[in-house]
Amino acid sequence: MYNMGEPRIKIVAMPKDTNPSGNIFGGWIMSQIDIAGSLAARDLNVQRVVTVAVNSMEFREAVKVGDVLSCYGRILKVGKTSITAQVEVNAERSYDGTRRCLHVTSAVVTYVNVDEDGVKRLIPHTQNELLALGIEQKL
Ligand SMILES: CC(C)(COP(=O)(O)OP(=O)(O)OC[C@H]1O[C@@H](n2cnc3c(N)ncnc32)[C@H](O)[C@@H]1OP(=O)(O)O)[C@@H](O)C(=O)NCCC(=O)NCCS
Questions:
Q1: By alpha-carbon position, which residue is closest to atom 17 of ligand 1?
Q2: What is the whole-number distance in angstroms between the Cα of residue 127 and the centre of ligand 1?
């Protein structure tokens, strides 16, 4: 995983978040991804975003109770009203005195900037703002 900065979310997986087989429920992980991606979108100083699409994602490792989940997020692309974010999720697991870091999943999530009535609105941004956030996109 290349540099994603600090985690947007760091949270311990709890027994209440398990599925019937005892692993952590995928829907709980997806909600953390959604929040982490929306926090990344806020780097552009948007007030309110809604999730329009989860473009791709794939679970590679199961998450267990007690794992420390870290969700990293960064903006990949900015459109007229949408922001697409990449989210990477790791789980840190302690077992028998050793600690392992597992790459759980990656996701690409798209958000739309909306007003109080849920109507889409333009995202004001400049090339310099994009560059400052490390977004390689020509306007
Ligand atoms: C999101 C919403 C405001 C979009 O409204 P709309 O008028 O249909 O908007 P558009 O179809 O023009 O799409 C708006 C932007 O989203 C992008 N978009 C729409 N569907 C997309 C998809 N499936 N994948 C990626 N981007 C998508 C469009 O390309 C457009 O981007 P741009 O303005 O940067 O070019 C509206 O569909 C909505 O309210 N959806 C419900 C959102 C919600 O409740 N989410 C769950 C809880 S937060």
A1: 82
A2: 23
> Whose C-alpha lies nearest to ligand 1, atom 26?
110
The CATH fold assigned to 9-132 is: Thiol Ester Dehydrase; Chain A (3.10.129)
pLDDT tens figures, 116-135:
999 999 998 889 989 988 88
pLDDT, residue 70, reads 98
Per-residue model confidence as pLDDT tens digits over 4-34: 899 999 999 999 999 999 999 999 999 999 9
d(CA 122, CA 113): 7
Ligand 1-lining residues (CB < 6 angstroms): 50-53, 55, 79-82, 110, 112, 114, 118, 120
Q: Whose CA is nearest to atom 23 of ligand 1?
A: 53
